[in-house]
Amino acid sequence: MSGKVTKNIVCPKCNEITQTEIYTSINAFNDPELREKALDESLFKWRCESCGHEARLTYPVLYNDMKNRFMVYLIPRIERFQLADRELEEEFDNLKNINKRLVPDFNTFKEKVFIFESGLDDMAVEITKLAISETVAKKQNLNEVTEGYLSMYDRETNTMGFTFFLGESKEPYVQSARLEIYGKSMSIVKEFAVKDKKLKGFIKIDREWAENVLYRYKRSKHHLQNTENEAKPTIKKNELEKKKINIEIINPQKKSEKEQK
Ligand SMILES: [Zn+2]
Questions:
Q1: Residue 25 has what DSSP assignment?
Q2: Most exposed residue of 15, 131, 163, 216, measured as fewest CB within 10 angstroms of its CB?
Q3: DSSP assignments along 158-169, one per residue
Q4: Which residue has the higher pLDDT, 23 or 261?
Q5: What is the Cα–Cα distance from 245 to 218, expressed in whole angstroms?
Q6: Residue 244 or residue 62, greater confidence
Q7: CA-to-CA distance for 1 and 194, rounded, in angstroms?
Q8: Cα–Cα distance between 105 and 78 in angstroms, integer?
């Protein structure tokens, strides 16, 4: 069942009140029409009955798709990583192995729906996206490319496409990738995100999360390489290699800068 409430919304232009139905939860399987409306955003459009003023409503929406076994909780601008909603947990306790995600904005919401409907693992997609964004940044001579989403997935041609937004003008840029990179990301997830897979409640799987996992992965490679090198007497070369690997590691400072904000 999809859930809705009736709210009185005051028009920001003429101050008149319009009674409006708001969907607080969407059941994509039972309400395919509602799914369409959510994805094309028409569900969030609001119109004043008195003056015709139009606005976009932002409010928390819980989207669930039990056929594809996922739930996405859109909570505008939410910053936390995990949200345990006991009431929801109890309600859906009978359904195991459901991917539960927390998203802060509409674009991420749409991307998650696309990923899970395509039968993909969003953790692996996020790691793939991070790796591809680094390639794009290098190619375009940019410090970093942080914004982007999965825009294409084609099993037959063995490709995945990401749309990134470059520079201050946020110029869209499409970069495709072979599915092998996704496969590699999948194996990283299996080894380095075991705990995350078991987390309860709704969790945020985004770029920051992927940076953390890739950091752990690279550090473990670093560690392995050092152990191998210990047997060799050429200390100088060992030092050089250490330095080279250090550069490859995603700078953890970036993280703390973000947290300070
Ligand atoms: Zn109005």
A1: E
A2: 15
A3: TEEEEEEEETTT
A4: 23
A5: 8
A6: 62
A7: 32
A8: 8
Residue 47 sits at φ, ψ, to 5 deg, of: -135, 130
> How many residues would you count in the chain?
261
CB 88 within 8 A of CB 78: no
Range of the domain at 244: 210-260
Partners of 19 in beta bridges: 8
Give a yes or no: residue 218 inside a domain: yes
Tell me the mean pLDDT in the region 184-203.
92
Calculate how far, in angstroms, residue 35's C-alpha sits from the geometric centre of ligand 1: 28
Asked whether residue 219 is assigned to any structural domain, the reply reads yes
* Residue 124 placed within a domain: no
- Matching residue, tokens 């970069």: 175
The CA distance from 37 to 23, in Å, is: 11
Residue 222 lies in a domain: yes
What is the Cα–Cα distance from 128 to 178, expressed in whole angstroms? 10
- Once rounded to an integer, what is the mean pLDDT over residues 127-156? 95
Distance 17 CA to ligand 1 centre (A): 8
Tokens read off for 183: 């496969």
Place of tokens 């739930």: 71
Cα(23) to ligand 1 centroid in Å equals 21
CB atoms under 10 Å from CB of 259, counted, come to: 8
Distance 11 CA to ligand 1 centre (A): 5
Residue 27, H or E segment: strand 17-27
Q: Name the β-bridge partners of 153.
A: 160
Q: For the segment 87-139, what is each residue's pLDDT rounded down to a tens digit? A: 766 776 666 678 999 999 999 999 999 999 999 999 999 999 999 999 999 99
Any idea what DSSP says for residue 184? H
Q: Are the beta carbons of 105 and 76 closer than 8 angstroms?
A: yes
CA–centroid distance, 40 to ligand 1, in Å, is 24
